[in-house]
Amino acid sequence: MNSERTAISSEQLVILESLWDKGMTSKGKRYKTLILEAVSKSGLNENVVKGWIGNNSRKKNNRHYTCQEGYYC
């Protein structure tokens, strides 16, 4: 398993976010066409795109999270 990180440029990020807005919100088979479009347009590896989807999904899901008093967040 490769543990190297890939830097995503601002141009690539615009592409990924645009496709996210079009529905590329998961890594499953249902999203394969959008993922391949992201790979083609951004020049990123498919695993990098899928990693970004997972990270972005976690980021979006935690955006509205509020910490209850007395809990570590």
Give a structural overview:
With 73 residues, the chain is mainly alpha-helical. The protein has a single domain (10-62), classed as Orthogonal Bundle (Arc Repressor Mutant, subunit A). The protein is 55% helix and 0% strand. It has helices at 10-21, 32-42, 46-62. It is globular, with a radius of gyration of 14 Å. The mean pLDDT is 85.
Question: What's the gist of this structure?
Answer:
The chain has helices at residues 10-21, 32-42, 46-62. It has 73 residues and is mainly alpha-helical.
The figure for the number of domains is: 1
| Main sheet characteristics | none
Which shape, going by the Cα principal axes? globular
Q: For this structure, what is the CATH class?
A: Mainly Alpha
Beta-strand percentage range: under 5%
**CATH topology tier name:** Arc Repressor Mutant, subunit A
Taking the alpha carbons of the first and last residues, their distance comes to 30 Å
Provide key terms for this protein.
mainly alpha, globular, 3 helices, Homeodomain-like_sf, 73 residues
What's the structural blueprint in terms of helices and strands?
Elements: H1 10-21, H2 32-42, H3 46-62
